[in-house]
């Protein structure tokens, strides 16, 4: 069996690699990774070497689809929608394997154009997809990105090698790029949390896209504090950050739900920097951007209405990490599906048993 992974963005890899490793482990077939040229090609080349990936480079989606038509793989895996699926389907079956489990409505609308199968995290979301797209194919497998953590294959960071203090508790601040809380944090906030290590893991776009230069300026300033480690673009995977942290601070980010699914305490920042086009009479645009279950999902975390509440909540949750354990565990299956560490196994088993040749 031959599989192609479409890596439009570097942050898709943490979702793809557990499936790739299971493919090799089970001797089920081979894989090719399609990378899109950009500003971080050197970093991608180092990952290719580290993971011993078979790969090609393309400049755009048109070149990618030309390769797919020529290669005629059994499956082509996408993390998002793809505009040329009709051409792909002339020669291959397609997969959508989403890279996150966050609360944004786009999680569902990415299936407006149907792949041959979309792998889904949990029965609740599978049922919602079936109701929205009754003619399409959705399979509940779980969230394979967490498999390496659940199976003990990821050890996390050696904090001293990051210049941090292993004896301190570690906070993970993992905001999304929009709508984000980054601009609402004061410039000296790491100083106010000097008795903690702070791992900063912003969204890839905050580090790489020019339009988020103000976020990047703040992040780079916070990096100057001795208790802070700012993820580099080469730290493309959230997995070691999830493993290493004792508590997460985030906003409307998929990372928040992944951390909570591991039954670790989360502080959800309700204070966000919204563009004027999302405020006041235009606030409906923000609500439209979020999933209908946004409010219900919020129960898995304690909420900071403003930055001034944050320090108290951090102390409270570090002292009482099991406070919301019952709620987190109740929502874990709804958010991420079966957390038995075998999501990748189920995915590969499906691909093998449903190949057309």
UniProtKB/TrEMBL annotation:
One Pfam match: Glyphos_transf
Lineage top rank: taxon: Bacteria
InterPro entries cross-referenced by the UniProt entry: Glycerophosphate_synth, TagF_C, Teichoic_Acid_Biosynth
Gene3D superfamilies attached to this UniProt entry: 3.40.50.12580
Entry protein name: CDP-glycerol--poly(Glycerophosphate) glycerophosphotransferase
Organism: Thalassotalea insulae
């Amino acid at each position: 069996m031959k599989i192609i992974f479409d890596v439009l963005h570097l942050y898709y890899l943490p979702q793809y690699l557990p499936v790739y490793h299971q493919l090799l482990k089970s001797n089920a077939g081979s894989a090719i990774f399609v990378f899109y040229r950009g500003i971080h090609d050197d970093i991608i080349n180092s990952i290719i070497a580290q993971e011993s990936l078979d790969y090609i480079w393309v400049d755009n989606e048109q070149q990618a689809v030309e390769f797919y038509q020529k290669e005629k793989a059994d499956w082509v895996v996408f993390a998002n929608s793809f505009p040329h699926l009709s051409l792909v389907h002339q020669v291959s079956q397609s997969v959508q394997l989403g890279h996150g489990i966050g609360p944004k409505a786009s999680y569902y609308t990415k299936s407006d154009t149907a792949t041959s199968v979309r792998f889904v995290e949990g029965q609740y979301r599978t049922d919602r997809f079936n109701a929205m797209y009754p003619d399409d194919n959705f399979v509940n497998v779980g969230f394979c990105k967490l498999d390496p953590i659940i199976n003990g294959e990821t050890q996390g960071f050696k904090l001293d090698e990051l210049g941090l203090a292993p004896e301190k508790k570690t906070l993970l601040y993992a905001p999304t790029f929009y709508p984000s809380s980054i601009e609402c944090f004061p410039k000296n906030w790491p100083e106010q949390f000097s008795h903690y290590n702070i791992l900063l893991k912003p969204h890839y776009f905050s580090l790489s896209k020019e339009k988020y230069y103000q976020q990047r300026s703040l992040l780079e300033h916070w990096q100057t504090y001795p208790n802070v480690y700012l993820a580099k673009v080469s730290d493309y995977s959230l997995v070691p950050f999830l493993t290493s942290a004792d508590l997460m601070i985030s906003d409307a980010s998929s990372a928040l739900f992944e951390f909570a699914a591991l039954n670790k305490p989360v502080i959800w920042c309700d204070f966000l920097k919204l563009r004027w086009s999302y405020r006041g009479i235009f606030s409906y645009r923000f609500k439209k951007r979020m999933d209908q279950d946004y409010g219900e999902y919020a129960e898995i975390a304690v909420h900071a209405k403003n930055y001034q509440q944050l320090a108290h909540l951090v102390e409270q949750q570090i002292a009482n990490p099991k406070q919301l354990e019952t709620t987190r565990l109740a929502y874990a299956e709804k958010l991420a599906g079966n957390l038995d560490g075998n999501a990748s196994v189920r995915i590969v088993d499906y691909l093998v048993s449903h190949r057309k040749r």
